[in-house]
């Protein structure tokens, strides 16, 4: 399904308005006369998804702080690819801003000839990192990564349902690093992977968000944090590096992008506006509700990650 | 020899099966344990081909199979042409003109059409469509030529 | 006791003025949207989701749920009236519902669909309130191999519901499966059979296929006949079901509700199969199976109650586990998240008002659907009094715009045109489209579960017979397949006796 929907985001999130009233309006340094019409935030995933939530929350913040009009639309499909193809063809005037994930510019081009690469876009900043984790049912005999590896060694293999290519490649890396048979079980996405794990059909699963509720209810345990740090809802679960693994942590951010060739003045202006919105207390509160944190890597941070991961996935997926 | 329904449908299935095999030639079949993108399509294509051949054979064997009823070219050709043209025109000529073209062709497809009726109901339906789909549901299609 | 208390809390929430209003708005919008082919509940919910962000969370969820089952119901209206299944779940309703309409019994079909849906909705709401936990546990027993078994069963059932040659129906199912694979393979990321058309990368759209095969092909066939020859649609005798209709329908409604309530809980494909499975069951237990597909009210009653029950119980995995079982419910999960409610097992304890309010509102929503729809039956039926030479112009327009509205892309209109051609050829060759449609829907699901099953079994095909659930379904499929062959044998023998 993909629908193009436009509804002003000021309709969204009325709950946070009250807090904003107390704040002095911030203002980014912008060229005279920009913006002179509504700015479009176009989200690469459907309304109601994690990316959409971030896009709307940031758009809402910008509207309040900069007094601009920001319209949020959705262009879902092909793992954010539909948006990227469309955005590449738009004018780089700063009025069309894509909201998408790191995977869409690093994994998609490595998988198939999609007609765009990460270099085709300018990056204005990001709003959140996805906190990936490897989780298993709480009654399983292993509590951490070495435990799972030992289990796999003893049983001959361990099956891990994965939430996408990002998880599949990670499982293969771990299998190679430890020399054990870890079988990634792919499917249509995180929900299916979680169902398989909850039903006990697989030994563990890689997840981005669904696992938090399961950990909180005591059904599941986090074996290892797949990002570069521990997370607040599973403080005892160490990172890959802390558990002695050399496999690099996963990095996936929700960022804001425009087609290449944005004028430096407008770029500075938009970068500031996004950074102010991401660092506003209301946005932080919203992220806390999702058991996550506001995090803006800025332009350079996103470029660095995209460059590194695009090369990594091209290598791992063996194309081009 | 007249084509019976069995014979022709068998041939059509066989053709789909063959097309599935040919177009899927490059897909990686993988193994039963780790199926690639070609495993299931290949399985299906061969199955369709085999069934198609069986149905064809049955059609050939039957001495007086079901004859295919006469095709009516007029409703078929005009309806399909109208729909295809509507699809080609919609984003260029806009909803109003493409709908009128669609109704013109669709009207010509029916043996009982009375032109006055087609024109009047076509116009009414067009107004309805503009109100519901463009103003009501805000579908992103142009109303007039762009 | 506790459940009673909770339900009471739910009703007190759901019966509040605002929630009642939004429940009504949702059911009404859903009905209207469902009646327009193409724009299904998924698109509607996606469109309205941002609007609901400013509502209170219960009101938002109540309204979205109303749209969901309202659209399920509205989709059956077009299936019955003009052979247009707007949703995969109403494909089966077309089979007998449209035939009933052609016989002037559209009113009965619509009323039975409404009443059957109401009953199914009420029962399945109770099922959600009482049996969510055990049903979830049961659904979790379903492994990939079991899904394969279930789907095989569904596909064999699809062969049964075809009237013509079983061999052709099998070929149609397989062709449907193959067409369902067009697009990007989720496992490898490679595209298959897209013939260099980027628009096919996400697969062939269901609406284009359904509009072409059912709606447009049927129009072309009907236009072959001159007006005076046409099987009359005109003489509509009554708007209400007869007592006999009611008597014929109550058992199918009960069985349909049971089948739908259970299958709906299975994530990924369960709800889709419910109307197929319920219909097959009715045809099997009927003493006059030959009436099916020719306007048997049992067919409409069972399919409609099953799909409504399934639509409702497919909420269970979201409520108990926080896992959305289909794309639409994923949107609802998104709506919960926007309101700061993490979908999952904690909702029941942390936000009992939302949880039980939503459940109670489903009950009320179903009642509202009937209140909205029963008076509308007269309106719909009077539409059929419009001479066909004018009516088909409108249907054609809705098909074309409906196909476009799926992705807002003209490509889907051409897809509809291609499938209209195919559908017309199939009609001419006595190949029924329903098995193809079921194959088309299940193709990607079957392939994926087959792959997962084999991956988990390390390439051992015997999992399909060693796992009890899968083995049961395969056995049932075999029995069904045998039954397809046996009546033919019996009929030949009967014919032989008559000849004596």
Notes on the protein architecture:
The complex is a heterotrimer of chains A (320), B (146) and C (500). Chain A is of the alpha/beta class and 320 residues long. Helix content of chain A is 38%, strand content 18%. Chain A is built from 12 helices and 11 strands. In chain A, α2 packs across α10 and α2 packs antiparallel against α11. Chain A is elongated and about 65 Å long. The relative contact order of chain A is 0.19. The termini of chain B are far apart. Chain C is mainly α and 500 residues long. In chain C, 75% of the residues lie in helices and 1% in strands. Chain C has 21 helices and 2 strands. Chain C has a two-stranded antiparallel ribbon with strand order 1-2. In chain C, α6 packs parallel to α10, α7 runs parallel beside α21 and α17 packs across α18. The C terminus of chain C is likely disordered. Chains in contact: A-C, B-C. At the B-C interface, α1, α2, α3 and α4 of B face α8, α9, α17, α18 and α19 of C.
Brief write-up:
The complex is a heterotrimer of chains A (320), B (146) and C (500). Helix content of chain A is 38%, strand content 18%. Chain A has 320 residues and is of the alpha/beta class.
